[in-house]
């Protein structure tokens, strides 16, 4: 069975995409959240990033041609912006850390 034919892979891809879209839509209202709402939003973003990191690691470790091609396509796309997938995750983490620092400063 191919990597993308796996029910587990398809399920997680759908859930990741749906959760990401929901969080991004919710994030548009971030400035209106109270302190606890902001903390909860950041926790959900961290959880999503962790899930995405694991999902991408599955691609990297897979011997499936399509999975390897997907990883290479992501690397190529990100390289157009001058970054690697690892740097993308690091930037996401830095952004979350700044958000946490800003939240602490507001208290």
TrEMBL record:
One Pfam family from the record: DUF1825
InterPro entries assigned: DUF1825
Protein's UniProt name: DUF1825 domain-containing protein
Organism: Synechococcus lacustris str. Tous
């Amino acid at each position: 069975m191919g990597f993308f034919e796996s029910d587990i892979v398809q399920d997680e891809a759908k859930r990741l995409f749906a959760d990401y879209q929901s969080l991004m839509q919710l994030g548009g209202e971030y400035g209106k959240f109270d302190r606890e709402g902001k903390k909860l939003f950041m926790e959900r973003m961290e959880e999503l990033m962790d899930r995405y990191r694991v999902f991408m690691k599955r691609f990297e470790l897979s011997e499936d041609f399509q999975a390897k091609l997907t990883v290479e396509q992501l690397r190529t796309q990100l390289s157009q912006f001058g970054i690697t997938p690892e740097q993308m995750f690091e930037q996401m983490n830095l952004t979350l850390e700044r958000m946490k620092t800003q939240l602490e400063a507001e208290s």
